[in-house]
Design brief:
Elements (H helix, E strand, L loop, with lengths): L5 H19 L2 H25 L21 H16 L5 H24 L5 H34 L23
Helix pairs in contact: 2-3, 2-5, 3-4, 3-5
Amino acid sequence: MAIGTTRTILAVLVLAALAVVVLRRAYRPAAAVVVAVVVASMAAKGLKEVFDRQRPPADLSLVQTDGSAMPSTHAAMTAAAVVALVVAATWATDQRRRRWTLVLAALLAVVGACMVYLGAHWATDVLAGWLLGGLLGAVVGLAFRWRASERLRAAADPRPPRCGAAATRPARGRPSPRR
């Protein structure tokens, strides 16, 4: 069995990620990451057709790739995943959120630097991918966070929503303001 193949490594990473999601019950941030990655991938592929920018020449690259270069799909997908996770997740403390944001940003920088070093992309391709992925990840992360806060607000108030004249009366247990 070829343990070092890309599919094997990807399968192990996916299984590890699923285990973390299930153990931590982080379904909402995981769903935000998946949606953000899919949307970023589709957007990057669409923009590649629009820009149709050539990759670095073969004599400057260590790997041979084909297709258009701008924006970098890998950069867009990794940035979308990181930003969606940071935005959609609920963090115990601000310090923990900042620490994880720095760690994930460092990983993004390593991925981008590797793509440029290997000659698969120009630096501007990676920057464009980060910008696209970061924007899409933020939008998706905020959408998932907003939906979760709406559900939490609805769950916190067991009474049905009031309308009409009843909506102007104060809730039970609170004194009414004197006029």
